[in-house]
Amino acid sequence: MTNAAPSIQTASQVTSRAMSAAGLRAFFNIAHDWKLNTEAQMTLLGKPGRSTFFKWKSSPQTADLKHDTLERLSYILGAYKALQVLLPDQRAADDWVKKPNTAPLFGGKSALERMLGGNVGDLLAVRQYLDARRGGWA
Could you tell me the residue range of the domain that residue 106 belongs to? Predict the structure, then answer.
């Protein structure tokens, strides 16, 4: 007979896992729509280890993401939503991230290239640019 104590999850742990799972599921759908390879996906998520990344991909419900990763997901999901509003044609919205952009923020490169800079600030900059083009936060 073992004396193992039952596992007790707090409400914040359950909420964190639920947010993590929902965010990852949405992210992997976006990555599919944007046709991102594994390396690009890992960079956008903040470069988790490969085994961690593939565990998140196969079992998002088991993830309990750190604040930095949740913040990254928030910016990516917000950028995706803004593109859907700005460019109602799904293909045009998905292709936009890979097209060269002459806006000063991008300097002739694509939004994806900017986001792949690896810094959370790069994701924020693209999100803010799209929100401004859309007419503000919503």
Answer: 11-134
Distance CA 96, CA 70 (A): 24
How many domains would you assign to the chain? 1
Residue 2 lies inside a defined structural domain of this protein: no
DSSP letter at 62?
Answer: G
Q: Shortest CA distance to 91 belongs to which of 29, 34, 25, 28?
A: 34
pTM of the model: 0.85
Per the domain annotation, does 3 fall within a domain?
no
Tokens for 2, please give them: 């073992």
pLDDT tens for each residue of the chain, 138 residues long: 455 555 555 555 557 889 999 999 999 999 999 999 999 999 999 999 999 999 999 999 999 999 999 999 999 999 999 999 999 899 999 999 999 999 999 999 999 999 999 899 999 999 999 999 988 654
